[in-house]
Design a protein that fits this description.
There is one protein chain. By secondary structure, the protein is an all-alpha fold. It contains five helices and no strands.
């Protein structure tokens, strides 16, 4: 299992490095050809800032709720209500953690949508 995970991470990293380099080459070729206006290369900052306005808020909420999920998992195991400590293949801790992380993303989405309406 660990070998497959390491292989996947390496291929993911190589893919992104190749993609970044080919995007750079493509943009350079478009600029040299003189099609800057058509390509929209010089103004991606406004598109990115509109799409992801509050990155600190997003990752702060996700980290906060991920930590809260870990605290809930630990308190449940200390209280003895659920015994997954002996069974390392249990999916309950992962489920609890994923629910808390997704709640962080949903809370971010609701806050950003409420700010857009105002």
């Amino acid at each position: 299992m660990q070998d497959a995970l390491i292989t996947a991470i390496v291929f993911f990293g190589v893919y992104h490095l190749i993609k970044m380099f080919t995007d750079f080459l493509l943009k350079r070729k478009i600029i040299k050809a003189g099609h800057i206006e058509k390509a929209g290369i010089l103004n991606p900052v406004s598109a990115v800032s509109e799409e992801n306005r509050y990155p600190t808020l997003k990752w702060g909420l996700v980290a906060f709720l991920a930590g809260a999920g870990l605290i809930v998992i630990e308190s449940m195991s200390q209280a003895g209500r659920i015994s997954w400590v002996k069974d390392y293949n249990s999916l309950l801790p992962m489920g609890i953690e994923l629910v808390f992380i997704s709640a962080g993303f949903l809370l971010y989405f609701l806050i950003v949508n409420a700010r857009k309406r105002n």
